[in-house]
Amino acid sequence: MNLMKVNATLLHNEPVRIGFIPLIDCAPFVIAQEKGFFEDEGVNVILSKEASWASIRDKVAFNVLDGAHMLASMPIAASLGIGTIKTAIQTSFTVSHNGNGITVGNVLYDQLQKYSKSSEDVRNGVALKRLIDNREKGEPALRFAIVYPYSSHNYQLRDWMSRAGIDSDTDVNIVVIPPVKMVDALKSGEIDGYCVGEPWNSLAVEQGVGHMLVTGYEIWGSTPEKVFGVNSSWAEQNEPAHLAVIRALETACVWVDDKRNQTELLNILSHPDYLNCTVGQLVYGFGAIKPKGQFDWPMNAYQRFSGREVNQPLPSYALWVMGQMRRWQQLGEVQSLNEVAEQVYRQDLYFKAFGVDVEINHGWRLNKDEESAWLNKVANGVIRLHPDGILKGFDE
Amino acid sequence: MPAAPEKELTVMLVDNEPARAAIVEQAMTDSGYRVIRRLENAKNLTEAVNQYQPDMVIIDIESPDRDMLENMSRLTQDNPRPIVMFAEEDDSRHVEAAIRAGVSAYVVDGVNSGSVKALLQVAIARFREFQALRSELESVKSQLEDRKLIDKAKGLIMKHQQCDEPAAYKALRKLAMDRSQRMTDVARNIISVMELMGDAK
């Protein structure tokens, strides 16, 4: 019965402690556990539900956890010592691409209609810009929420605003609210809009609380969203276990993307140990969002889990994240962008996990003398992501 | 900037566990610190921090509202920053102990690090104490549950085998020893088998 379990010896080793945040994109971790994929790889995993990204970061940094479901920018922030003590955290597996969206409350949506000639104006932020320009002096700034300062949500929201000419530092007030509280905060008027992952956009639409304006996929194209981040010293000392977890996650990602498994997936995810919600709340996060108003259109957050183009760590994305950190005043000088990207987004271990013997492509590397100029161009919005996403690189 | 005198440190406490918050606050007051605000939930947390300007915020590590404070540390230097940023080589053990005890903290730059450490110790001790109390309570609770299960199984055996209580207990214990299972597990099995047979009344 255990013939397939070539790594059965790992089971006798220390368990691997992995943290996750109850969001749809923790699915690969939950499925790898529930469907026995970790066990099939011979690794004993203890999943631990965490309440905040800060908690994930601190516990991985101080070895209370070995690794975790992380925002793709977190290992970079930790390795650079941004917002925390400098700790080597790395990733060799991207868990998901996309899944974010920007939603505004009904009150703001109704106001936006007055400033738009077509749905396009609402979608690209032009209506919001006109509304902000026409606000009375002394009126409190609109409040938008994100889930964490070092996140794609923060960067995508600010990028979207900046393209419409909105200064996200002065024209609006950006606050942090935990994802589970977003819809309520929108409903109570505590905030006017937010950028968050699914299902919190589709839920607001379904509950008639707000309208989704644009998806993260429309803003940036396909980009990494969550990764499996690990403490680098743990990874160094436990390579077989690390690679086994990566293989199990890959199997889980394929399983999660298979439409035939959706009913079972939703049932498992909704369990109190995981997302602790109803299947009905989750199902919207996996489908197209239906228009509910005159200026709405059908949308899909385009969340993806499987395939090498999704799972492979992309150091070019690490560069892009550092560009965003610089753009929004989180990052000062960096010794070497290339080095950080290479040390944090470890492609070599991804290939090693699957026994793939390939020449690693270093085409993403920046010209050594132009690193600093490149960073400034990203910060000024001159260099952008290719409209299709990070796999196609950058446009200038 | 001169270091703040040790006893002047002001603290804001955020904990949705009112009993624990009360214990921690009392301990801090006893140690001579001033808890200027105790919040049970994080509604308007950032506003409260802005308004009261505490030197240190202590918050349950399992609170989803921690990420709100993370954003504050970016805005200005005067706002509290996560304690982990202050974990220099020599005192990283304190921070690790705090994380393990479930305490997280945010500290304003320039505050006397000795006071911060001392205060953290108070919080860690109380959090641990509370955790110990809670697990004790849980273990008492589960012992009670175990007792109930065993009593129920005993009753079923007595009824089924038409024997007295000591005999039923002996049978149960023997079964547990033979199978090297816990008495409760055997009791649970017996109850479910009897239920299956429609006999568990």
From TrEMBL, chain B:
Every ANTAR domain range: 130-191
UniProt KW keywords: Phosphoprotein
Modification type 4-aspartylphosphate: residues: D60
Keyword Phosphoprotein carried by entry: yes
Stretches assigned to the Response regulatory domain: 10-124
Species lineage: Bacteria, Pseudomonadati, Pseudomonadota, Gammaproteobacteria, Oceanospirillales
InterPro entries: ANTAR, CheY-like_superfamily, Sig_transdc_resp-reg_antiterm, Sig_transdc_resp-reg_receiver, WH-like_DNA-bd_sf
Protein name per its UniProtKB record: ANTAR domain-containing protein
Keyword Phosphoprotein included in the entry's annotation: yes
PROSITE patterns reported for this sequence: ANTAR (PS50921), RESPONSE_REGULATORY (PS50110)
